[in-house]
Amino acid sequence: MELHYLYGLLGGLIIGTAAAVLLLINGKIMGASGILGSVADGSAEGSDRREKLAFLGGLVGAPALVTLFFGAGSTNLTTNVVVIIAAGLLVGIGTRIANGCTSGHGVCGISRLSIRGIVATVFYLLAGGIVMVLFRHVLGVI
Question: How many CA atoms lie within 13 A of 67 on its CB side?
Fold first, then answer.
């Protein structure tokens, strides 16, 4: 098995474990967009805010540390800054419309057999596939 497959497996295990620990210990769903949204709009206060800031710090800091010690992995990310910004905005809009992201619906929702989470994840995947076909093969932007 190639090493990058093992990295994906390890990352998935870490995300799943983190989601399970947060749910079992705090009774909360690990939805990154919801956590970020509550910090950004000021609805998270006190110890809840500190906990969410620590989560977001780990979300950014852990990959930064891995990159620092092991180097950056290769990606297929486009160098077109307009496409990167548009993609980020569309993902943000999509998470607001769906009331969650793939960590909340995909990891936590599917593992709890939530119909809402399963349906949202199916639509995320379909939308991603359609966008890739459209932008890569039809428009040639990516």
Answer: 9
Q: Cβ(121)–Cβ(109) under 8 Å?
A: yes
Write out pLDDT tens, residues 12-22. 898 889 889 88
Over 90: is that where the pLDDT of 91 sits? no
50's CB contacts (< 8 A; 6+ apart) are none
90: CB partners within 8 A, 6+ apart: 131
Q: State the Cα–Cα distance between residues 8 and 69, nearest whole angstrom.
A: 18
